Amino acid sequence: MEHGSYQDQSASTFSLADEDHTLANSLRFALNQDPRVAVCGYSIPHPSEALVNIRVQTTGDPAKEVLKDSCQDLMMICQHVRSTFDEAVADFKNNRGSESE
Amino acid sequence: MPKVSLWDLPDLPQNQLPPHLQLQKTRVVCNNDAPTHTENITYSGAYAAIGVDNSLRLDEFRKNFKVKVIKLSEEDMEFDLIGIDASIANAFRRILISEVPTMAIEKVLVANSSTVVQDEVLAHRLGLIPVKVDPRLFDYMSENDVPNEKNTIVFKLDFKCERKSGERRTVYSHDLKWLPFGSEYVLSTENSSDPTSKPKTYTSFTSSQDSLPEFSNNPITVTPGIIITKLAPGQEVELEAHAVKGLGKTHAKWSPVATAWYRMLPEVVLLQDIEDEDAQKLVNKCPVNVFDIEDVGKGVKRATVARPRACTLCRECIREPGWEEKVALRRVKDHFIFTIESTGALPPEVLFTEAVKILEDKCESVITELS
Description:
The complex is a heterodimer of chains A (about 100) and B (about 375). Chain A is an alpha+beta fold.
């Protein structure tokens, strides 16, 4: 859910339901790294309610696009982590197999 | 120091921070009283004033990111993630603990219990027993769903302590027997309209779980050796336990890890040469033997840092006055030593891969929600 103005698309707040610090902090990190972002942050209005408000203010681009791009970046980071990890585990198992022979 | 004209000062290489700022950005300095520079400077324009770009290019990340596996066994693993930010490492840890699904006993149908342990306490204990099966082979069961072979696992516990034996017996978790055909307790129905049909039980398995290729040779078991209850002569317990898929968020019994944690790599740097007596004092002070003495020649002994990874940051070496100028304790902000201890449902390397997949799925759901 996006709370913003129709006139100025570059600043808006996104309310994500069923989310907590797990996704919000990672998204905040990915957003911060994007050079188009001027301000970004997240808050959790009440800990009993699973709701996160992510605020994005950009240097001109629509905030929704920047958020989507940051999500994509985060996904690429995750995929790279996964493939590197799988390689490292496979290497370790091979090395251990060859050592014990 | 000789005076150098402003124009002759050495140029810093392009896009690199001066060393003191680099230290602030990449290391947590652990002083005697409190750590400093603990926050991560992630903002892309943080160093714009000096012309250094702080944004994360994905290519840079791909080049610098490394994973090193230190220990790997069936139950736990220790590995290093180098070049990643704390927020993402923490996200993986949180997902491992609470959002990777597992199977655990949820409903217990007690037919007969003359134990001293109350029914609900028995059910609670049964729920906490880890079920060693791959949860990806099963579906979630919601309120309206009928329990069938795709979403339920049924176990039976039938234990009687004979009155003649005269001694107490312990009921262990390996006494739980897997029923691949489903529940054996018949639902009481008002009308027996069709006496030839099979009586309806508490679960409706259309086929035996035994027939699935994954289970045909290795039956579903629970972790053995866990004490469920103890029976005195004449007491017996007869119950059926149904296990369903769930998340650690709902109840800790569904958490697939005994625990998962990380720590940042400690860095111990000797700022001055520490020799002779001081060196011996330093080696004796450290409880985990981080320092070693090396002979430099001419009978001079110098202290070196041999095992910085073992350092627990207890700060014994800098506690006394005067030592803080000699030894610098720091942590590297983007090097995480992860340890994962699995309860047995899935091996730890699979658990980590699943956790990363779950974070990807969360991002994807945000993207679809926004489009």
